[in-house]
Amino acid sequence: MQIQRQLGLSRYQTAWTILHKLRRAMVNPDRSLLTGEVEVDECQVGGRETGRRGGRSLIAKAALVAVAVEVRGNGSGRVRMAVIPNASGDTLCGFVADNVAPGATVHTDGWMGYTGLTKNGYDHRKRSQRAAKKIGDTDPVLPRVHRAISNFKTWLRGTHRSVSNEHLDVYMNEFTFRYNRRNTPMAAFQTLLGLGAQQAPTTYRQIADQGPKAQRDLS
């Protein structure tokens, strides 16, 4: 709505389409993999979060998202995010392989889905939050990736109020693009112009008709 007002557009649909075209241009196809030490975890986005039981229990209409963040001293480096179908070993190890350079040190919690990382060539270091509490270890487990997840959910709720699962991936593109360039906003704008110029033309119907629940009839 802000873009609609600023550009003097008569239709909300036009502003929505412009922003979705930009979000689809926010992934550099030549971007490099995360390196060094990386924290990895999953989170559920959407749905009702009250009355949850179990760390990986499914919530109706919620999407499962995998997140990886580089460790840079006490701070964070780049982030990568992806919607995943489940928290199985094949899925989680596949996410890491797609986003983290071989040989990197990967920090996770104690979930068994990450056990295959070592044989895949990563220095896997797991730390169970439950076990840490039992021995009085109060240091936060995976603080950087949890901070990124919290920022992402706050941004979704505060800026967009609600996002459908069909288009969640492009909103993650936007968050990732902004997060990774948070210290260089002007360079980020120039980068987006360059990436946008490389995108093929996309119509509103092509964007709106994506996703399993979207209308497929283009006639």
Strands, helices and their partners?
Blueprint: H1 2-7, H2 12-24, E1 37-45, E2 63-72, E3 75-84, H3 89-99, E4 105-108, E5 123-126, H4 129-134, H5 143-160, H6 168-180, H7 185-197, H8 204-208
Parallel strand pairs: 1-4, 4-5
Antiparallel strand pairs: 1-2, 2-3
Question: Tags for this entry?
Answer:
219 residues, alpha/beta, Nucleotidyltransferase, domain 5, 5-stranded mixed β-sheet, 5 strands, 39% helix, disordered C terminus
Explain this structure to me?
There is one protein chain. The protein is α/β, with parallel strands linked by helices. It has one domain: Ribonuclease H-like superfamily/Ribonuclease H (Nucleotidyltransferase, domain 5, 2-Layer Sandwich). It is 39% helix and 17% strand. The chain contains 8 helices and 5 strands. A 5-stranded mixed sheet has the order 3-2-1-4-5, sandwiched between helices. A hairpin with a 2-residue loop joins strand 2 (63-72) and strand 3. Helix 2 crosses helix 6 (168-180). It is elongated. The relative contact order is 0.16. Residues 212-219 have low confidence and may be disordered.
Structural class category: alpha/beta
Total of domains? 1
In CATH terms, what is the architecture? 2-Layer Sandwich
The CATH class name reads Alpha Beta
Q: Output the CATH topology.
A: Nucleotidyltransferase, domain 5
Strand order of the largest sheet: 3-2-1-4-5
Q: What is the 3D shape?
A: elongated
- Biggest sheet descriptor: 5 strands, mixed
| Percent of residues in helices | 25-40%
Average pLDDT taken over every residue: 85
Give the ordered list of helices and strands. HHEEEHEEHHHHH
Strand content: 15-25%
Gyration radius, rounded: 19 Å
Poorly predicted spans: 212-219
Oligomer: single chain
- In total, how many beta strands? 5
The tally of helices reads 8
What is the CATH superfamily?
Ribonuclease H-like superfamily/Ribonuclease H
Quote the distance from N terminus to C terminus: 29 Å
